[in-house]
Every structure is written in C-alpha cells, then in structure tokens.
C-alpha cells in the first residue's frame, strides 16, 4: 500500500490504520481502496501521497475567523463527548462501535480546528446528563440532530470566513457530517 496522508488532519494512512473508524463511513475503506481518511473521515480527494497538509498562518486570520474556529472546535468536542457517552448508554453492540467511531472522528475534527487556530488546548466543556436518551433510538435521534446542527454550522459560518483554506476544510468536514447524518438516519429506519 502506498504511503498516504490526509491533507485535512495530517495523519498518515497505512495498512495498519486504513480500517480504523470504518463504521462511521457509508463506503468502507479496504486495503488498496481508501475512500475516507480513517482519522477525520474526509473523502478521497483530500488524501494524497505528495501534497502537503492544509495550513494557514493564524496571524493572518481576522478575529471573526478565529472566533468561528473556536466555536467549531467546541462544537466538535461537544459532539465527540456525546458519542462517547452514547457508546456507554447504547444497548446494542453494533451501535456501541458506531458511537465510538463517531466520537473518534468528531474529536479529530476538533483537533483540526485547534491546529488551524493555533489554540493551546481542546476546551473542557460542561457535560450534560444524557440519561434521558435511554433507548438506542433516542440516542440515534440525538445523533441525527447533532449532525444536522454541525452541517448547518459549517454552511452558515463558511460565509463568515475569508480564508479559502478554512472554507475548504469546512466543506470537507461538512461532507463527513452528512455521512454521519445519513448513517444515524439509516439506523433509526432499521429499528
């Protein structure tokens, strides 16, 4: 397998990692057929063996762009923490794995925003009590709502960003959230 790198998150993709978080994708990665970054979930067009990772000079970013990146980072941490808890609350083994994979992907999105904004740390957020989502269907419905919110966030805030690289990152991550929304909905329809 050729050495590949994700241009969004910067992670190297190898025969040891291509299969990670596969439950969070509509089209699964296979050895020799990588469809998504196994770390942040972006599509094949953002995976390359030669190009450099997308970067920005955070000093050139205006205040609004930095605020949007900060909010994006918090949104992804919030969703990552939800999926972490959903994995614990879920009754079904298959869903536990899905929620774990989704949590990994969302936390990687937060790390992408952290890197672009050159923030010191991921934020520590207040964790709500998710016990009211006491069935797998309620957890999936909440997942669908969160993915819908993330898609809307990226769409709305992309217009506020002047940096083309960040606009492209938002587009790539929004496409990942659309996959997650589809997967959550598909599970609800199966039940």
UniProtKB/TrEMBL annotation:
Gene3D superfamilies: 1.20.1260.10, Immunoglobulin FC, subunit C. InterPro entries: Ferritin-like (IPR012347), Ferritin-like_SF (IPR009078), Rr_diiron-bd_dom (IPR003251). It holds the Pfam family Rubrerythrin. Residues 68-183 form the Rubrerythrin diiron-binding domain. It comes from the Bacteria. GO terms for molecular function: metal ion binding; oxidoreductase activity. This is Rubrerythrin. It comes from Marinisporobacter balticus.
């Amino acid at each position: 397998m050729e050495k590949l790198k994700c241009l969004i998150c910067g992670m190297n993709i190898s025969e040891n990692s291509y299969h990670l978080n596969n439950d969070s994708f509509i089209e699964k990665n296979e050895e020799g057929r990588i469809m998504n970054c196994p770390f942040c979930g972006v599509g094949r067009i953002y995976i390359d063996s030669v190009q450099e990772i997308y970067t920005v000079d955070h000093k050139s970013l205006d205040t609004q762009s930095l605020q949007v990146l900060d909010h994006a980072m918090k949104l992804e941490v919030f969703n990552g923490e939800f999926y972490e808890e959903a994995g614990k609350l879920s009754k079904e083994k298959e869903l536990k794995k899905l929620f774990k994979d989704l949590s990994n992907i969302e936390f990687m999105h937060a790390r992408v925003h952290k890197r672009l904004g050159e923030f010191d740390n991921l934020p520590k957020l207040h964790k709500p009590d998710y016990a009211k989502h006491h069935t797998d269907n309620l957890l999936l419905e909440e997942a669908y709502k969160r993915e819908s919110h993330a898609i809307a966030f990226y769409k709305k805030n992309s217009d506020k960003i002047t940096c083309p690289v960040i606009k492209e990152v938002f587009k790539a991550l929004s496409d990942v959230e659309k996959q997650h929304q589809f997967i959550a909905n598909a599970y609800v329809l199966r039940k």
